[in-house]
Task: inverse folding
C-alpha cells in the first residue's frame, strides 16, 4: 500500500470506508451521525466545519510531511481521528466497536477488510473530485426531493431501497416481502394484494393523483411497511427497519438519504425500473 495521498484524498477514502462499515454493522447511529458531519457542502466545506480541523489535527500526530500521506498513514490518521471523536461524544459503544475493528485490521494485514480500504484508496486517486456531498441542508434541503413520481416509480424505488437494506441485514421477513413485491412478466406483482396495499398507502399522503414527491413516496413507504408489520405480527426485523426509516424521516441529514435519492434517480432514468426477480 505505497500510494501517496493528499489530506483530502485520505479523508475521502476514510469517509467511504466508514460508509461501508456502517452498512455492514447496522445499527450504528453515531457512525451515521459522523458521516453526515463529514459530508461536504456545495461551497466545499464540511457539514460540520470542525470536522476538517479535527482531521488535520489527527494528521499532525502521524505525519509532518505537508499534504502527503501514505495509505498506511492515512489509516493511522483515521484511528486517531475516531479516538478524538469518541471522546467528544462520551465514548459511544458503536464508535468504540468501530475502533476495535480498525485496530484488529491494523494488527493483521491479512484481515479481509483491507480489500475495501485498498479499493477506496484506488477510487479517490482516480477521481477528480472524490468528496461525498451532503444532499439536504438548510432552508433548501427539501428542494432536491421535488422529483415528480408516479405510483410505479415510487414503488420501484421502495423495492430497490429495501433490497439495499436487506443486503446489510439478515431479515428473513423482509426477504419474504421482497419476493412478494417482485413483478411477473405480465407486469403484475407476484402477490396482487401487495400492489393494492401500496395504492392504499399512497392515497393516505398524496396531494395530486399519481404525481408526488420523493419525500411523499418515502412517507408512503413507511405507511406501507407499518401495514406489513401488523400482517407479520410485529416481527423484529420489520420493527428495526421501521425504526431506521423513522430516524431518516426525522433527520434529513441521515446517511441513508443518499441511497434513497440514488434509488429515485435510477427509477426516473429507466424506461422500465421494475424488479422482476429479486435475489437478496
Result:
Amino acid at each position: 500500500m505505497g500510494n501517496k495521498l493528499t489530506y483530502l484524498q485520505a479523508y475521502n477514502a476514510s469517509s467511504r470506508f466508514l460508509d461501508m462499515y456502517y452498512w455492514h454493522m447496522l445499527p450504528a447511529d453515531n457512525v451515521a451521525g459522523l458521516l453526515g458531519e463529514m459530508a461536504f457542502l456545495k461551497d466545499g466545506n464540511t457539514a460540520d466545519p470542525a470536522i476538517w480541523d479535527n482531521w488535520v489535527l489527527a494528521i499532525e500526530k502521524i505525519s509532518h510531511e505537508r499534504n502527503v500521506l501514505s495509505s498506511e498513514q492515512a489509516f493511522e490518521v483515521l484511528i486517531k481521528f475516531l479516538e478524538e471523536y469518541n471522546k467528544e461524544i462520551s465514548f459511544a459503544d458503536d464508535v468504540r466497536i468501530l475502533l476495535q475493528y480498525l485496530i484488529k485490521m491494523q494488527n493483521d494485514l491479512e484481515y479481509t477488510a483491507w480489500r475495501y480500504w485498498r479499493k477506496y484508496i484506488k477510487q479517490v486517486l482516480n477521481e477528480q473530485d472524490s468528496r461525498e456531498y451532503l444532499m439536504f441542508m438548510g432552508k433548501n434541503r427539501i428542494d432536491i426531493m421535488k422529483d415528480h413520481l408516479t405510483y410505479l416509480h415510487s414503488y420501484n424505488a421502495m423495492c430497490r431501497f429495501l433490497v439495499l437494506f436487506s443486503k446489510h441485514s439478515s431479515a428473513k421477513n423482509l426477504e419474504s416481502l421482497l419476493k412478494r413485491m417482485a413483478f411477473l412478466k405480465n407486469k403484475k406483482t407476484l402477490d396482487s394484494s401487495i400492489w393494492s396495499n401500496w395504492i392504499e398507502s399512497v392515497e393516505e399522503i398524496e396531494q395530486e393523483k399519481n404525481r408526488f414527491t420523493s419525500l411523499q413516496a418515502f412517507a408512503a413507504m413507511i405507511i406501507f411497511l407499518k401495514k406489513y408489520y401488523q400482517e407479520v405480527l410485529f416481527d423484529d426485523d420489520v420493527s428495526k427497519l421501521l425504526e431506521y426509516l423513522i430516524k431518516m424521516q426525522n433527520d434529513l441529514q441521515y446517511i441513508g438519504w443518499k441511497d434513497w435519492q440514488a434509488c429515485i434517480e435510477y427509477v426516473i432514468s429507466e424506461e422500465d425500473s421494475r424488479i422482476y426477480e429479486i435475489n437478496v
